[in-house]
Specification:
There is one protein chain. By secondary structure, the protein is mostly helical. The chain contains three helices and no strands.
């Protein structure tokens, strides 16, 4: 394995923040629907591990990081989708 092969691996710290580069293509290759589903799945996973103390804030941040609209209606819709499968 070359020294650069592992450069794009995403890791999370114990605080739940992303401390490494986003995997190549994560925000450019996926369409909005795929990115939205990814945001919802990330928040669901965080809830299962107990790392989602403020789901509204997390939804807003994840939407913005994914390059998606983060209006209050968008945030509410993500929170609703996350909670409907919980």
């Amino acid at each position: 394995m070359s020294e650069h092969e592992n450069e794009n691996v995403v890791t999370e710290s114990t605080t739940g923040t992303q401390d490494a580069p986003i995997q190549d293509g994560s925000t450019t290759d996926a369409d909005d629907g795929d990115r939205l589903e990814g945001v919802i799945e990330q928040i669901r996973a965080d809830m299962l591990t107990g790392r989602a103390d403020d789901v509204q804030r997390m939804a807003r941040e994840r939407l913005e990081q994914a390059g998606l609209s983060a209006t209050q209606n968008d945030v509410d819709a993500v929170v609703s989708a996350v909670q409907s499968a919980s």
